[in-house]
Specification:
Elements: H1 20-38, H2 45-52, H3 56-62, H4 66-91, H5 96-113, H6 115-123, H7 130-156, H8 165-177, H9 179-182, H10 191-205
Helix pairs in contact: 1-2, 1-4, 1-6, 2-3, 4-5, 4-6, 4-7, 5-6, 5-7, 5-8, 5-10, 7-8
């Protein structure tokens, strides 16, 4: 189908379903559901519009393509992850071990609370255009940078016995991200229990001495 449907004459936020921001949110949530259930390539704008309870032209009013929706979902959840990590680190004790545990917990909790967004973001990165993919990867690099800084401080202060910090960052962030793929609400472990266990695993992985 065409990448963009024509707008109806006279289309404006005033005569679109709901307020402009609210309508965008409805379309985003509909796209998220569709991408999680059907995959990006198995979803059309018509599918998204039907889930949102609006016409296809109305859906196109809010977003020019399903690719724009996918990019927005990924950017939003990654920005929120960065904010959560920064807040967790700021609230933790100044010791690197406490900070690493705090950001691991925050990472895991976001991936249980925003599971569908995280799952779609991890499984559909390849579906983005080169330009959109670069923007998402740039944000993910910011996530890695937070872990790199904490682990570097732990090594500098002699609290972490971690001869391979780059690999440690990759291992920790990968295991935290993978939670979105297997976690099930109402399962054996509550989100905070998973977060605590992953924090302990991360501290062992970097050889925390305290």
């Amino acid at each position: 189908m065409a990448s963009r449907a024509p707008r109806h004459a006279g289309t404006s936020p005033a005569n679109m379903p709901g307020e402009d921001a609210g309508g965008r949110r409805v379309v985003l949530m509909a796209a998220l559901e569709a991408f999680a259930e059907q995959g990006f390539h198995g979803t059309s704008m018509r599918d998204i519009a039907a889930r949102a309870g609006m016409s296809v032209s109305a859906a196109y009013y809010y977003f020019p393509s399903k690719a724009a929706l996918l990019q927005r979902i990924m950017v939003d959840v990654t920005r929120d992850l960065i904010a959560a990590l920064e807040a967790a680190r700021a609230a933790a004790d100044q010791q690197p071990g406490a900070q690493l545990a705090a950001i691991v917990r925050a990472h895991v909790l976001l991936h249980t609370e925003r599971q569908r967004e995280s799952f779609v973001g991890n499984s559909e990165l390849r579906s983005l255009s080169a330009r959109d993919r670069a923007s998402v990867i740039g944000l993910r690099d910011q996530v890695s940078a937070i872990f790199k800084q904490v682990i570097a401080e732990g090594r500098d202060q002699g609290q972490f016995d971690c001869p391979h910090p780059a690999e440690a960052v990759l291992a920790i962030t990968t295991m935290c991200t993978a939670v979105a793929g297997w976690y099930r609400p109402g399962g054996r472990l509550a989100p905070h229990a998973v977060a605590d266990r992953y924090a302990a695993l991360a501290l062992r992985l970097v050889g925390c001495r305290t």
